[in-house]
Every structure is written in C-alpha cells, then in structure tokens.
Amino acid sequence: MSEHVVAFDDVTLQVREYGSADGPLAVLLHGFPDTPLTFRHLAPHLADQGYRVIVPSMRGYAPSRTASSQDYSVAALATDANRLHEHFGGDERAILIGHDWGSATVYPALASESSRWSRGVAMSVPPLSAMMSAFMSFDQLQRSWYMFFFQHPLSDMVVPLNDFEFIARLWQSWSPNYDNSLDVSAVVGALSGDGHLAAALSYYRAALGGPTADTVITSRVADTMAFVASVPPQPILYLHGENDGCISAASTDLVETMLAPGSRRVVITDAGHFLHLEKPTEVHREIDLFLAGA
User: What is the pLDDT of residues 146-187, one digit of tens each?
Assistant: First the structure.
C-alpha cells in the first residue's frame, strides 16, 4: 500500500493505493461515519484480483482537506470520483465501489461520465428513487432521525461529546453484532481536526438543505448535478445487510427494477450496515461473481 496527495481545484485528497499500476482501476469510496480503513479487507482482495485500487479519504475527512468551495453535495463527491479516474489514468474497464455516502456517490458518478466506468458496486444506500420511497414510511424516518438532527447547529456540539460517543452509538445501532472499536477510533481521528466534523455533517445539510450562501459550485459539479437522479447505464451490484439498522433491507426490495439491465441485488444474511466488514468473505464472493459477469 502506498499513499498519495491529489490536489483538485477546490479540495486536496489523501489517497491510498493498492495493487499493480498496470491493472484496471478500482476506486473505493467510504461513507459516514467512516474512513478508508473500512476497505482493509476489500482493497487487498481486489488488488489480488489484478486491480489497481484507489481509496481516498473523502473530501472533508482528515487527512484529506476541507473543501475551499464549501461544496459537500453528492454531485461534488461524484465529480471527485471521476477526477480520480482521470488523475490515475483509468480506462473503460474501471469499476467504482461505494459504501453508504460512497454508495450514493456511485450512481451520479457512473451516470454523469459513463464512458469512464464499466460497472459499479453500491452497498447499504440504494438509488435516490428508492430512498425517497423509503422516506414515506414512519419506520425509515425513525431510522433516519440523525439526518434531520444534523440540520440543526446543536449537532455540532453534541456529536463530539464524550470522545465522539455519538459516532460509536451509530455504529452500534447500525451493526449491533460487530466490534466497531478499531473503526470508530479511526473516525474520531478523521473528524477531530478543525472543520472536519462540520464538513462531514455538511454532506447531510447539502442533501436536505441545498447549497449555502458560501458554497461555490464549479462548472464540472454543475454538470454532474443534472445526473443526481439518473439511472446509470452500467450494471450495478447492490449489496445490503439483512439486519441493517440504518436502512431497512425491505426498503431495497425493488432496487433491481431501478437499475440498468444486468444489475443485481443481494441481501447478505446476518449482516448489518457495515456488511463488508462483518461478512467480508460473502461480500467478496458476490463482487467477484459480478465482476466476472456471472
């Protein structure tokens, strides 16, 4: 594993690289509240399969920088993914894999610059149309209470209390049978510096409240915005944990009908929101079969 610093016009990202530079590109995107450590099983596995694996700390998460544009929209995240493809010389064989916010990023990234990517893998957050449908139910709104809490400035004070106990409790409620201590410690490190927690919360504020007066939207991000609700033309493997405490598995029942032909939905048994950490063998098997075209 090697590390790089990649500077874009409004943000600088810290990136981990695995595998041979000659292999097809695989970009892996983490979510909230998480870090690149979340792919400590999947990244080496893909490298062993011949991929050149790129794992960024998402914009705002240390050691990546906060964005000078103050833009934390999903369109900005998707633009980062496409710029990473460009920066690392990816070709049409490239794949994009995301979990949580990384999953939400996969759809517009693939749709907006579709010639860059052959396939996508999305975990734990379904396409926007499925999420909007899920929000029509009391049960999912109850699960998603934190998203609405993050809209209020009180969250800036509450989340870091008691060494970010809030973060540990989210992990516990979303994946109750998983020992999250290593991961939560990494998240605390990523969010403790100046401005980093505000950046992570801004993902939710941008999603539900739109851009603020301080947000600068670049032309490339503006172009990507048109694809936020689009169906990507590439096949996508959608993976969800049977016992996900964040988003109900039942709310993803129709995901295959919302994606391109060749897409699949697989529910991983006895797994929660962080299914790739809880059941890495099963997740790797499903990804290998999908990438092989099986």
Answer: 999 999 999 999 999 999 999 999 999 999 999 999 999 999
How do the domains of the chain map onto residue ranges? 2-291
Q: How confident is the model at residue 289 (pLDDT cuts 50, 70, 90)?
A: very high
Tokens of 197: 């927690």
d(CA 220, CA 250): 35
Q: State the DSSP H helix or E strand holding residue 3, giving kind and residue range, or none if neither.
A: strand 2-7
* Beta bridge pairs of residue 4: 15
CATH code that applies to domain 2-291: 3.40.50.1820
Location of structure tokens 């970010």: 164
CB 179 within 8 A of CB 34: no
Q: Provide CB contacts within 8 A for 263, sequence distance 6+.
A: 235, 236, 237, 238, 255, 256
